[in-house]
């Protein structure tokens, strides 16, 4: 088709085009609607187009709208893995798109480690993510000398977070979990769990005020909970392998009722294989055997009354296509036999779909429980944990952190 034909169909003459473009770009509301479809990296570049574009993209209103639009899409752009072997930490990023070059794949872990300026010996002690933002704790190479940051990988912005002012009291910071919901607020909160005099204490930091508040709640040290908290409905949730599950309300700064699953008779503890949030619900996977590839996905009722079976999943048929998912030799050796782990669950009740990202030693697979189909979403090149005998281990759910592109400010 000729250029003249295209102009006739569009109804524009060549001299009219610049004027039409100007009308669109000068209209803040129309420009906003267009820009909301772009990813953060493109938006950061387009801020330099003009002062008007900069004012639109950098405004609090635009960033809030962009965050809400992203939140509704229920889309994760990649997974960040952080694990520890023999005292050393490793970070690997696996994107879920094909537009990122192999060189760029390592950009986020490199940026994470470069946050701490003038410190070549710093190590990541703990990592936690929530809707695109990350809380990171670094050890500076000196015992108990740690610093804490909130980081946005999409914009490469970070903020140093001060520790709670506890005076001269001897305390150990166990973990800082991040709470961020762009559908509710532009600000975020941090839950700091500290150990002091045989009990856990809970403090909450607000990015809007820059102030820590002591919840005055304490928890007996004999309670053992996992540090990988899940934020939902204004509360941080933790599951425990031996004890009761916990729900901490960040608004009222107190514990709320939280049902736990039953530990089977004769079993010392739960074998938690996944705990996370999707579609506004909490999901939990527990299995009986280490190498089990059949399991139930539990969902927590919205009123926190009970856990119920949402899905029954059997991945044993995948062993034919991916033989590394199960190894009888590993069972005999009694080393890490979990060569197949669910690292992310996506549930969409409106579309009645459930997708599971399953990590194997060499590939991440997406399993659609409704259609019973599989597809490979990412290869794992160097992301293997060395075991004495061979590279057989795979990432687990608590090594996994969701990466979501966001324009949120830190």
Instruction: Classify the oligomer.
Output: single chain
User: Which ranges are low-confidence, i.e. pLDDT below 50, for 5 or more consecutive residues?
Assistant: 1-16, 327-337, 382-392
How many helical stretches? 8
Mean pLDDT: 78
Main beta sheet, described? 4 strands, antiparallel
Task: Report the CATH C-level class of the largest domain.
Answer: Mainly Beta
Assess the beta-strand content as a share of residues: 35-45%
Radius of gyration: 24 Å
N-to-C span: 50 Å
Q: What strand line-up does the widest sheet have?
A: 3-4-5-6
Shape: globular
How many domains, as an integer? 2
Number of separate strands: 23
Structure summary:
With 410 residues, this protein is of the alpha+beta class. It has helices spanning 3-10, 17-26, 28-35, 40-46, 51-57, 60-72, 107-113, 328-333; strands spanning 78-85, 88-95, 123-130, 133-139, 146-152, 157-161, 172-180, 188-196, 199-206, 211-220, 230-232, 235-238, 246-249, 254-256, 272-278, 281-286, 294-300, 307-314, 341-348, 353-359, 363-368, 373-379, 400-403.
How would you describe this structure in keywords?
single chain; 410 residues; alpha+beta; Neuraminidase; four-stranded antiparallel sheet; 8 helices
Describe this structure in words.
Strand 8 and strand 9 form a beta hairpin. This protein has 8 helices and 23 strands. Residues 1-16, 327-337 and 382-392 have low confidence and may be disordered. Helices cover 16% and strands 37% of the residues. The protein is globular, with a radius of gyration of 24 Å. The protein has 2 domains: 3-68, no CATH class; 74-403, 6 Propeller (Neuraminidase), CATH 2.120.10. With 410 residues, the chain is an alpha+beta fold.
């Amino acid at each position: 088709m000729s250029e003249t034909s295209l102009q006739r169909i569009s109804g524009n003459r060549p001299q009219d085009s610049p004027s039409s473009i100007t009308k669109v770009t000068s209209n803040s509301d129309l420009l906003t609607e267009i820009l909301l479809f772009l990813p953060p990296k493109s938006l950061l570049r387009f801020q330099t187009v003009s002062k008007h574009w900069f004012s639109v993209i950098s405004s609090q209103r635009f960033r809030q709208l962009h965050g809400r639009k992203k939140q509704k899409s229920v889309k994760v752009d990649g997974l960040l893995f952080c694990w520890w072997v023999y005292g050393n930490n490793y970070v690997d990023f696996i994107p879920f798109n094909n537009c990122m070059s192999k060189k760029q794949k390592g950009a986020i872990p490199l940026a994470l480690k470069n946050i701490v300026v003038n410190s070549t010996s710093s190590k990541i002690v703990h990592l936690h993510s929530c809707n695109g933002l990350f809380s990171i704790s670094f050890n500076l190479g000196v015992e108990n000398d740690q610093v804490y940051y909130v980081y946005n990988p999409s914009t490469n912005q970070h903020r140093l977070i001060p520790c709670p002012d506890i005076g001269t009291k001897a305390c150990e910071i166990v973990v800082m979990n991040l709470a961020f919901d762009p559908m509710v607020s532009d600000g975020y909160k941090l839950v700091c769990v500290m150990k002091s005099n045989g009990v856990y204490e809970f403090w909450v930091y607000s990015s809007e005020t820059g102030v820590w508040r002591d919840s005055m709640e304490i928890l007996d040290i004999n309670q053992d909970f996992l540090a990988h908290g899940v934020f939902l409905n204004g509360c941080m949730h933790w599951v425990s392998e031996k004890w009761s599950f916990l729900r901490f309300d960040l608004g009222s700064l107190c514990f709320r009722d939280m049902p736990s699953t039953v530990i089977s008779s004769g079993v010392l503890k739960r074998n938690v294989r996944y705990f996370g949030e999707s579609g506004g619900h909490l999901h939990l996977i527990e299995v009986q055997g280490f190498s089990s590839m059949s399991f139930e996905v539990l969902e927590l009722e919205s009123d926190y009354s009970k856990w119920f079976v949402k899905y029954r999943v059997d991945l044993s048929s995948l062993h034919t296509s991916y033989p590394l998912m199960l190894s009888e030799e590993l069972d005999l050796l009694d080393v890490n036999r979990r060569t197949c782990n669910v690292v992310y669950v996506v549930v969409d009740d409106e579309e009645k779909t459930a997708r599971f990202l399953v990590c194997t030693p060499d590939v991440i697979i997406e399993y659609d429980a409704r259609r019973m189909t599989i597809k490979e979403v990412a290869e794992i090149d160097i992301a293997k944990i060395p075991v004495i005998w061979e590279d057989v281990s795979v990432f687990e759910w608590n090594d996994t952190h969701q990466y979501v592109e966001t324009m949120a400010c830190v």
